[in-house]
Design a protein that fits this description.
transcription regulation; Arc Repressor Mutant, subunit A; 166 residues; RNA_pol_sigma-70_dom; sigma factor; WH-like_DNA-bd_sf; 81% helix; 0% strand; DNA binding
């Protein structure tokens, strides 16, 4: 299949920066990050007709898999391992998974209405009580409870649409 440069350029334009930040936060190596981003975009472009759900989620999961594959390859080459002083493989996979989950959750939260997102952030990230969230958001505590209920339902739907396993 010939490379459709417009499609690849559009993927880079829309998702390249976020993808690069994600990979760089896991690898801390700018050249490796760029290589992973390029390989990710090409793989996703090749799979584009078969992708269901969020393209961004698929990009991040693909980048995660490429990073893990690269890490495993490096583990099989003793000289490279010694040069880079790589950590425990399970720890590296866990770190990448944690970063991926954070990115996917941020994307899902951005899809919520402002009212729902504000309530979830207050209750789950800032760890406010219902009453504290009500004061902070300047709404009744009953509204906080109601919005939290519907926000969690909406978030589950969004995560399902993104293909994120819970």
């Amino acid at each position: 299949m010939p490379l459709d440069e417009d499609v690849v350029a559009a993927i880079y334009r829309e998702h390249g920066s976020a993808l690069r930040r994600f990979v760089l936060s896991a690898s801390r190596d700018p050249q490796l990050a760029e290589d992973v981003v390029q390989e990710t975009v090409l793989r996703v472009w090749q799979q584009a007709p078969d992708i269901t759900g969020s393209l961004r989620s698929y990009l991040f999961r693909t980048a995660r898999n490429i990073m893990i594959d690269n890490y495993r390859k490096a583990q099989r080459r003793p000289a490279e391992v010694m040069e880079r002083e790589l950590a425990d493989p399970a720890e590296a996979v866990e770190r990448v998974d944690e970063l991926l989950n954070r990115v996917l959750m941020e994307e899902a939260l951005l899809r919520l209405s402002t009212e729902h997102r504000d309530v979830l952030v207050a209750l789950h990230y800032r760890r406010f009580t219902v009453n504290e969230a009500a004061v902070q958001l300047n709404i009744p505590s009953g509204t906080v409870k109601s919005r939290a209920y519907y926000a969690v339902r909406a978030l589950r739907t969004i995560l399902d649409e993104m293909g994120v396993e819970r």
